[in-house]
Write a structure and sequence with these properties.
homodimer; about 230 residues; alpha+beta; Jelly Rolls; 2 domains; 4-stranded antiparallel β-sheet; DNA-binding
DNA sequence: CACCCCTTTTGATCTCGATCAATGGTTTCG
DNA sequence: CGAAACCATTGATCGAGATCAAAAGGGGTG
C-alpha cells in the first residue's frame, strides 16, 4: 500500500522554511552552488525572465502541488519566481538536503521526480501553444488551464480569480497586452467568459472554451487530474 | 570521491535494450502504464508532435548524454521520438526498473535527475527563443546550439553536420520553411556560416554567430558544458 | 542517362498581431 | 482629497513572416 502523495511530501515539512507571500513578492533563485527546491502550497506563482531592455517573459505558471528546482530554470538574466495571487504559501528547502532525504525515502524521491516531469511536459505543451496556435486559441488555452486549476464549480459555471494581468498574459503567451485585451473583449462578447467582480471571471461552459482551442483535450488531461496540494490541510 | 557521470550510467547498461537507429527511425513513446526511459548515446534525436491536419512541431532536440522519460512529453496526438542523424544509438529501459535501481544507487538517481532538470531548463529556454526573438535571432540561436553540440573545432572554424532539414528547423523554431531558407541564405551571404558539403556547415566564428542572438550567452552556458555521453567509449 | 521524388530557393502578395497613440478606470499614498 | 502610477480598452497604421506559386537543384533507381 503506497502512502498518498500528500503524506509523502508532508515528511519534508520539518526541513523546510515556510514562506507566506503577498502579490508580486519574489522568491530568490539561488545560484548553482546552493540549489533550492520550492514546494508550492497555496496560490499561483510565475517564473519570469527578463531578456533585454525592459522586456519580460513568463516562462511558466506554478500551482499548488508543484515542485520547482532552480536548476530547471535556465540561467537567463533577471529570472525570478513571483507570487501572482494575493496570498500564497511556499515551502523552501535546499536541494542538497532534499537529495539526502530522497536516499532514505524512495516514495518521496519518486513523487518529487514525477512532479518535476509534469513541469517538463507542461513546458513542452506551452511550446506547442505559442508555436502553433493563433492568439485567440492561446488565450482560450490559458483560460481553460486557469479555470481548471483555480476555479470552483458553481451553478453558473466555473468561477475563478484571474491571477494574471493583461500584461502577464501577454508575456506568457508571446502576445502584446493590447492584443490580449482585444481577444478577451471578444471572448466576453461571445459569451465564453463573463466578469464577476474585480479580477473574477466566470466560465459558463468549459466545453465551449475548449472548443476554441485545438489542443484543449491535452490541456484538460494535464490540468484536471494533477495533484493540488502537497500537504493535507 | 564521486564516480564520474559516465561510470554512474554505465551501471544501467545490463538492464537496457540497445537500439541502433537510422535516420528518421522512430522510437516508441509508451503509455503511462509502462513508462520508458531512453538514454541517448550517439546522434541527435527529435521529439515531435502533430497537432492538426498535417502540421508537425519539433518540441525539443536530444543529444548524447540526454535522458528522456516519456512522462516528460505531453500527451499530444502523434508524439514521437525520431532519429535526426544517420546513425544513432539509444538505450531503452522501463522506468519502473530504473526506479528500482535508483533506490540502491543514489548517485545514479541524482545523475538522471540532473539530466532531466537540464531538459526542463532547455525547454524553458526554447520558450524564450520562440516567444521573444525574431526569425533571424532564432536561427542564429539554433546554429549556435548545434555547432556547440555536434561540431568539431578545425582551423577553418567549427564544422558540423546539420541534422535538421529546413522543414525541421521551421517546425522547431515556429517559422515557415520558406522563411528559414531565406534566413539561412542571408546568414551565408553575411559569412556567418558556409557550406562544406552535403548537409555540412562551417561556422567560422562562433562569436560572430552569438553576436546575432541576444541570449547567446545563456545558450553557450547550457550547451558548452553539458555531459556528452553516458558511457565511456 | 533519364526519370521521379523530394528539398531548397526565390518572388509576389497578404495577414495577424505589433506598435503607436489617446482615453478612462483603479489603486496607493502623502 | 488629489496626484501619481498603473492597468485596461479601443482606434489607426505598419511590418515580419506566412502563404501561394513556380522554378531549380540533387539524389536514388531502373
Amino acid at each position: 500500500m503506497k502512502p498518498s502523495p500528500e503524506f509523502v511530501l508532508q515528511q519534508l515539512e520539518p526541513h523546510t522554511v515556510r514562506i507566506s507571500t503577498r502579490k508580486r513578492q519574489k522568491l530568490a533563485i539561488s545560484a548553482e552552488s546552493d540549489e533550492t527546491l520550492y514546494l508550492i502550497q497555496t496560490g499561483v506563482f510565475l517564473v519570469r525572465a527578463a531578456w533585454r531592455d525592459d522586456r519580460h517573459q513568463i516562462l511558466s505558471l506554478l500551482y499548488p502541488g508543484d515542485c520547482i528546482r532552480s536548476s530547471a530554470i535556465p540561467p537567463l538574466d533577471g529570472t525570478e519566481i513571483a507570487a501572482a495571487s494575493e496570498n500564497g504559501e511556499v515551502w523552501r528547502l535546499r536541494w542538497s538536503i532534499a537529495r539526502g532525504l530522497f536516499e532514505g525515502d524512495p516514495d518521496l524521491a519518486h513523487h518529487v521526480s514525477d512532479r518535476l516531469a509534469d513541469q517538463t511536459a507542461r513546458l513542452a505543451l506551452h511550446n506547442t501553444i505559442i508555436a502553433g496556435l493563433t492568439g485567440d486559441e492561446r488565450v482560450a488555452a490559458l483560460m481553460t488551464e486557469i479555470a481548471l486549476r483555480v476555479g470552483k464549480q458553481t451553478p453558473a459555471g466555473i468561477v475563478f480569480d484571474m491571477p494574471l494581468s493583461r500584461t502577464d498574459i501577454a508575456e506568457h503567451l508571446a502576445l502584446n497586452a493590447d492584443t490580449v485585451s482585444r481577444i478577451v473583449s471578444r471572448m466576453r462578447a461571445n459569451g465564453l467568459i463573463a466578469v464577476a467582480g474585480r479580477n473574477r471571471l466566470v466560465c459558463r461552459s468549459i466545453e465551449a472554451l475548449a472548443y476554441e482551442c485545438p489542443i484543449a483535450t491535452t490541456i484538460r488531461r494535464m490540468h484536471e487530474t494533477a495533484p493540488r496540494r502537497t500537504l493535507v490541510a
